Amino acid sequence: MANSKPLMAKSSGTDPAKSAVQSALRTLETETGGISAIAAALQSDLGTAFARAADLIRNARGRLIVTGLGKSGHIGRKIAATFASTGTPAFFVHAAEASHGDLGMITADDVILALSWSGEQPDMKNLITYAKRFKIPLIAMTAERESTLSQAADVALTLPKAREACPHNLAPTTSSLMMLALGDALAIALLEGRGFTSVDFSVLHPGGKLGAMLKFTRDLMHSGDAMPLRPLGTQMSDALVEMSSKGFGCVGIVDARGHIVGIVTDGDLRRHMRPDLMTALVDDVMTKNPKTISRDLLASEALEILNSSKITRPHRDRGEPTCRHRAPARHLEGWCGVAATQSRTPKKDGLLRRLRSSQ
pLDDT tens across 104-154, in order? Predict the structure, then answer.
């Protein structure tokens, strides 16, 4: 059996690692040129077509149907997913499969976005005919202004010509990236035009890290007996028992109305260490007026406050009785809106650690 050979012979006397990095830099430089060409074109003829395409999609009573095949099809799937997750109902129909029954997925209320760099793929013919027959708006994304697809479209997004990053100028690389970038630009233009918010995004993306970041602190917080709380006038010995038994590394101090007025952390214990510490009152040891976070704050915003203030144990807003709303150790590694910046504990479980470690 013959030995397999590499597709390209190694250059003698060349450091493979250095050669790979230089190749990567050439690829990125070439692809960057393609993106820059789109930006320039948008300030000319492409800009007018782009605005018309956005209007067609925005005013559609149905969905956006993205189609293509080959590398354009792969890019089309990603574009459809981006539209769908940013407030524009969309899905992908493979151009070849469309001729074998999938045309039935497309209705007269929809808008079609067809991707083809050459604009001459034979598989597009039946789809174009179907769009014309049922008067379905057709947007073409192609590099050939005079192509069959471009001429048949209601709106033609003509991409500027660009060299592929492939040294033979064959493998779709720069062209694929340019299509993806223009698709993203369309999706974001529609997102901004609709006033699509992070809260809207959380409805469509409840899973994963993004979903977790788009939850509210009220969705994550602990409450009730799980919270370490002691009233003003408590001896430190009792406060320490409460702190240790609840496992938060701190204890909240509340007034007669149940509002947080202070917090005692392990840092406070170290700073006030003396022989009579256990008989002292929490009033003399606690950090007064700790920082607060509203229970209606997004988890991502709460995390930013925690990171910037170096807080590990937040409480909810002081404006609400403490006994009703407090945030979770297992999720935000703290309560929900108040914490002394001096608080430091060795506990590293919960959402806060996972989110911070993934940044």
Answer: 999 999 999 999 999 999 989 999 999 999 999 999 999 999 999 999 999
Residue whose entry in the numeric block shows the structure tokens 């089309």: 76
pTM for this prediction: 0.64
pLDDT of residue 272: 85
Can you tell me which residue has the tokens 């650690």?
Answer: 353
Evaluate if residue 93 carries a pLDDT over 90: yes
Residues 199-203, mean pLDDT to the nearest whole number: 70
Exposure letters 14-47 (e unless 16+ CB within 10 A, then b): eeeeeeeeeeeeebeebbeebbebbeebbeeebe
pLDDT for res 224? 74
For 68, residues 6+ apart whose C-beta sits below 8 A from its C-beta are 75, 76, 94, 95, 114, 115, 116
Q: Give residue 68's pLDDT.
A: 96
Lookup: tokens for 27: 């690829």
- Taking only the tens place, the pLDDT of each residue in 268-286 is 888 888 888 898 998 888 8
Structure tokens at 243: 């702190």
Task: Single out the residue of 128, 117, 138, 135 nearest to residue 64, CA to CA.
Answer: 138
Q: What is the 3-state secondary structure (H, E, C) of the chain?
A: CCCCCCCCCCCCCCCHHHHHHHHHHHHHHHHHHHHHHHHHHHCCHHHHHHHHHHHHHHCCCCCEEEEECCHHHHHHHHHHHHHHHCCCCEEEEEHHHHCCCHHHHCCCCCEEEEECCCCCCCCHHHHHHHHHHCCCCEEEEECCCCCHHHHHCCEEEECCCCCCCCCCCCCCCHHHHHHHHHHHHHHHHHHHHHCCCHHHHHHHCCCHHHHHHCCEHHHHCCCHHHCCEEECCCEHHHHHHHHHHHCCCEEEEECCCCCEEEEEEHHHHHHCCCCCHHHCEHHHHCEECCECECCCCEHHHHHHHHHHHCCCCCCECCCCCCCCCCCCHHHHCCCCCCECCCCCCCCCCCHHHHHHHCC
